[in-house]
Write a structure and sequence with these properties.
By secondary structure, this protein is an alpha/beta fold. The protein has four domains: about 200 residues, P-loop containing nucleotide triphosphate hydrolases (Rossmann fold), CATH 3.40.50; about 150 residues, Rossmann fold (3-Layer(aba) Sandwich), CATH 3.40.50; about 45 residues, no CATH class; about 90 residues, 2-Layer Sandwich (Alpha-Beta Plaits). Helices cover about 35% and strands about 15% of the residues. The strands form three sheets. A seven-stranded parallel sheet has the order 3-4-2-5-6-1-7, sandwiched between helices. Strands 10-11-9-12-13-8-14 form a seven-stranded parallel sheet, with helices on both faces. Strands 16-17-15-18 form a four-stranded antiparallel sheet. It starts with 9 loop residues before the first helix and ends in a 48-residue tail after the last strand.
Amino acid sequence: MLFRDFELSAGVIQRMQDRGILEPSPIQAESLPHTLKGRDLVGRARTGTGKTLAYALPILERLEPQSRRGRLPRALVLAPTRELAKQVAGEFAATGPQLRVVTVYGGAPYGPQERALSDGIDVVVGTPGRIIDHLERGNLQLQEVQVAVLDEADEMLQVGFAEDVERILGATTNPQRQTLFFSATLTLEVLRLAQRYLKEPVLVDLVGEERGKTSQTVQHVAIRVGRSRTHLLADLLTVHDPERAIVFTRTKKEADELAMELIHRGLEAEGLHGDMAQSQRERAMASFRSGRTRVLVATDVAARGLDIPEVDLVVQYHLPSDSDAYIHRTGRTGRAGRSGTAIVLYGDREGRALHQLEYATGVTFERREPPRPQDVQQAAVHSASQLVCEVDPALGAPFLEEAEALLREHGSEILARALAKVAGISELPKPSSLLSGEESMTALLMVGERLSVPRVVALLARRLDDARRLGKIRLCAEGAVVDVPNELVPGLLALSPLEGNIRLEVPTQLPELLESSDGRPPRERDGQGMPRRSRPGGRYQSRGEGYFERPRR
């Protein structure tokens, strides 16, 4: 199916072709037959699937160009963030330059927005708070709005705009108004609002209540945090060496602090959250889009609607608060058919919550161990060599004579030292425990049957002067993993087997640990493979949906 197969004007089709857009995305193909006929609609599709054009095209077809000064807006688009509002306005400008579009959002001066509104406009795109401000100041009137759109409706209602949204929709008094809701999830708040303001809406649902709501081109990875979370994150960014990565944090303060910590570790990073001034946010986004900054440390303000191209790695610094948050965040990578990687970091006591998240999202996480120090060092060396090769030869010309002299005197060893300097490596990596990440400890695997934590302690205490020096102990299917001070490892290995067939060995990778520290296996699962405790009422659960007319196929 092509855009020319729809009831679109030749001018719109030509502008789409000029932009290289020939085929509609699924949400566009499913919704356009209804929206072009003026039907109210609720569209649910994953983030990054083309929802903006799905509602922009019907508006462009419905509104005739006008030049009358002081004309009131005939279309309204509400967006939850400033960045999304600007992105939507850019889409209108590219596809419908015959219409005058004004973007209004907080953090920007009122004067230019007031002048633009008074001059006369066709489409107003804005955030609810600033739209309310202009309504109260008398700068904006919405009684002539023919099409009203809520973009990312669930996000808008979740972040506290429900009252503002209802007030704005109440001000669009045109009885012939067409109302369109586009969302990634159907929350109860969205359904209630749709029942109140939409007339016999069609539901176009490309997600449904089935599992598997995340992009199919994303690799989902879970890594247990056994040491400093920040240290682990820095190692992951070094090993993956992404062109662009987004790290999601829980709080604005954490985003600022983590961005600064990554910078101190030699990684190019910028923070992004709602408390930043608009100029700061625009600078951070411009730097990230251009590639000058490769890591964006952000709150959920970056999870939805932002036009961020080619993000190949998403890291969730903590387990997300709910399954919808995981879906939206991972939606920043694997877009437009590209592949991507999504990593979630979880703590020792969060194994059950991770299982619940798997069920709620339909994702099967690949459990991986944290990168080994030697892997991190090798990745840093490779990155440094690439960085050196990318330098313009003209910039290296003044150094050529000195470089040749150094090579004659020291050979290739001097180049190796230069690469170490570029990589920021000032000391050799120290071995660390696979279990805890502590450099003073080595993780030993104790293989045997019917092992418990008390028995492990008792077995080792008989062979150590001070059992209090033992570190973390976790049970696994093979037996147990225990942290032992480095200097005691050779002596303990020499005593293996300890008792009967119980033996000690140094594992090359950490075995899968049992979920509880007392050795109890994971709770029995039901016939659907779901932990019994993660039935509705658990941490991650899906939400129901209301009654809509389903489009006939």
